[in-house]
Specification:
Length: 303
């Protein structure tokens, strides 16, 4: 075999290898592919190995993972005529179905650049109608409005707006200093109110405790006085019962000895009035007086 033939074979082999290299492509799971034939869309490419006709077909890879773009810091004039520096971030991704992947390439020239421009314009429209104070306090409202507007405007681009984040709102330096002083004064006021409330609560607790102590002392004094009163009543009742028992005993005793009592009264009356007492001849004076008194003057007989 001549050298010319060998050279032709080598060149043919190289050409075949080069053509295979041009015809074989791969699509990663993070992407989807659009195959164009002679400048026109031909078919959709899912992840895997793709075979192309060299010089006739062309593969366009489209990333479908979530992306983030920064809208960039810009100055916006608020409704109260203050210049605020505003920045925001937009998170989005291309939907993975064929129609949306095609829309991201054929319905918009460069969706990355156009999302930035659209986000900046939307922020100016939203914050321009708000005061600086409202813009700082209603970040959630701004995020929601920005998200809704971007979702509506990019619907035909095959994009999904995942979320939007208002990165910062910076007022002018002098305004920021004034706002810091206002916030500091407000915090000091709140702290003073909280301290006064705490002192008032403490004083109220001490007052309630003093009232409870006084009430306890009063109840103790009342109970002590009632105890003393009841003790006196019991003593008086005891004395009355004792007197009653003595009287009843005296009545019982004298009721059975009424004759003896009358004799003693007769003797007492006779002696007081110097009355004469006739003494029998066979009796002594002692026996007569004893008889009048009902007293037995005769000694008992000896056994």
């Amino acid at each position: 075999m001549s050298g010319t033939a060998i050279s032709i074979i080598v060149l043919a082999a190289i050409l075949v290898i080069w053509l295979l290299g041009k015809s074989i492509r791969t699509v990663r799971p993070t992407s989807r592919g659009l195959i164009e034939r002679l400048g026109r869309y031909n078919r959709f490419a899912n992840p895997g190995i793709i075979f192309l006709i060299p010089f006739i077909e062309h593969l366009v890879r489209v990333n479908i993972t979530e992306n983030m773009i920064d809208a960039g810091l810009q100055e916006i004039i608020t409704s109260d005529s203050l210049n605020a520096q505003v920045d925001a971030q937009v998170y989005f991704k291309v939907r993975s179905d064929e129609e949306d992947v095609k829309a991201s390439q054929y319905n918009v020239f460069n969706y990355m650049l156009q999302i930035v421009a659209l986000a900046r314009t939307t922020l100016r429209n939203i914050i321009g109608t708000m005061t600086l104070k409202d813009a700082n306090s209603e970040r959630g409202k701004i995020n929601s409005a920005l998200y809704n507007n971007l979702s509506t405007e990019t619907k035909s681009w095959g994009l999904e707006i995942v979320r939007t984040e208002l990165k910062e709102i910076n007022p002018p330096a002098d305004v920021q200093e004034t706002m810091n002083k206002v916030v500091k004064a407000s915090n000091e006021k709140i702290a003073a109110i909280d301290f006064a409330t705490a002192r008032e609560t403490q004083a109220d607790g001490e007052r309630r405790a003093a009232i409870k102590v006084a009430e306890g002392q009063r109840q103790a004094a009342i109970l002590q006085a009632e105890g003393q009163k009841q003790a006196k009543v019991l003593v008086a009742d005891g004395e009355a019962q004792a007197i009653k028992l003595v009287n009843e005993a005296a009545d019982l005793y004298f009721k059975g000895n009424a004759q003896l009592l009358r004799q003693l009264q007769a003797v007492e009356t006779s002696l007081t009035n110097n009355s004469k007492i006739v003494v029998p001849t066979d009796s002594s004076l002692v026996n007569v007086i004893g008889g009048l008194a009902g007293i037995d003057t005769h000694p008992p007989a000896m056994k």
